């Protein structure tokens, strides 16, 4: 099982592949994101907000802080672990998500003599590990750098401090060795602005496209519609097929 990081790892000069988890390692068609929005909205309603106020605050906090939970903690002093239990923890992941052999093979084919593979998520450790387990990817992810909801002032993507803490914890001394993929544009741009080497926006598409067909997006190195395109973008860390 992938391990949430609890202490700093010794410096390592290999590349490090940072994989976002939600809506990156599984498809948006699973509707996990929509189910999460419904649960967060219900949480706002349980606090006594009207339907309109709940929608407004949810959008405001997500936009301002990267997570609605951050706004709730800053302005309403809620219990983050209770929020996590009622929102992430109540998702029927086992009934919805299925392992994708192609994604597993993609991660398997990363040459571990050249690169480490870590997860970088705004979720808490319990949700991150649960998703990886359901997707049958736990054994391929070395460590998880996650949002520590148990801390009253945790950081998250896209805050620069989150990326700095991730580098420090992973023992990364050269951020140009970081290869990062995420489905959120702000998160990818933030990593790039922190000096990370190659930052990719994953914008899922049902049909196959070549990378040349993807639009250019300011502040990111590449846009992909299929995770398999990482084989070409990051060929320096993939095993050479005879």
Task: Give a verbal description of the structure.
There is one protein chain. The protein has about 240 residues and is of the alpha/beta class. It folds into 2 domains: about 5-25 and about 100-235, HAD superfamily/HAD-like (Rossmann fold, 3-Layer(aba) Sandwich); about 30-95, DNA polymerase, domain 1, CATH 1.10.150.450. The chain is built from 10 helices and 7 strands. It has helices spanning about 30-45, 50-65, 70-75, 80-85, 95, 100-110, 125-135, 160-170, 185-195, 230-235; strands at about 5, 15-20, 115-120, 145, 180, 200, 220-225. It has a 7-stranded parallel β-sheet with strand order 1-4-3-2-5-6-7, with helices on both faces. α9 links the parallel β5 and β6 (about 200). α1 packs across α2 (about 50-65) and α2 packs across α3 (about 70-75). The model has no long low-confidence stretch (mean pLDDT about 95).
**Poorly predicted segments:** none
Percent of residues in beta strands? 5-15%
Number of helices: 10
Helix content: 25-40%
Estimate nothing, just give the exact number of structural domains.
2
User: Which structural class best describes the helix and strand composition?
Assistant: alpha/beta
What order do the SSEs take from the amino end to the carboxyl end, as H and E? EEHHHHHHEHEHEHEEH
State the end-to-end distance.
30 Å
- CATH structural class of the largest domain: Alpha Beta
Gross CATH architecture of the largest domain: 3-Layer(aba) Sandwich
What's the CATH superfamily of the largest domain, by name?
Answer: HAD superfamily/HAD-like
Radius of gyration over all CA atoms, rounded: 18 Å
From the spread of the alpha carbons, the general shape counts as globular
């Amino acid at each position: 099982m992938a391990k949430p990081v609890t202490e700093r790892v010794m410096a390592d000069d290999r590349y490090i592949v940072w994989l976002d988890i939600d809506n990156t390692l599984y498809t948006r068609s699973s509707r996990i994101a929509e189910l999460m929005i419904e649960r967060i909205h219900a949480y706002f309603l349980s606090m006594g907000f009207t339907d309109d106020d709940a929608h407004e605050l949810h959008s405001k906090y997500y936009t301002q802080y990267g997570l609605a939970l951050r706004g709730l903690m800053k302005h309403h002093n809620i219990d983050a672990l209770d929020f996590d239990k009622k929102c992430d923890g109540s998702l029927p992941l086992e009934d919805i998500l299925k392992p994708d052999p192609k994604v597993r093979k993609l991660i398997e084919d990363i040459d571990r003599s050249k690169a480490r593979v870590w997860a970088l998520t705004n979720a808490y450790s319990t949700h991150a590990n649960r998703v990886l387990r359901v997707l049958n990817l736990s054994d391929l992810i070395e460590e998880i750098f996650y949002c520590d909801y148990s801390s009253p002032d945790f950081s998250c993507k896209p805050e620069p401090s989150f990326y700095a803490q991730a580098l420090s914890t992973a023992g990364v001394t050269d951020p140009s060795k970081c290869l990062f993929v995420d489905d959120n544009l702000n998160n990818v741009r933030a990593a790039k602005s922190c000096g990370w080497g190659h930052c990719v926006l994953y914008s899922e598409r049902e049909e196959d496209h070549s990378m040349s067909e993807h639009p250019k997006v300011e502040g990111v190195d590449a846009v992909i519609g299929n995770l398999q395109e990482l084989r070409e973008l990051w060929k320096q860390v993939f095993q050479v097929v005879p």
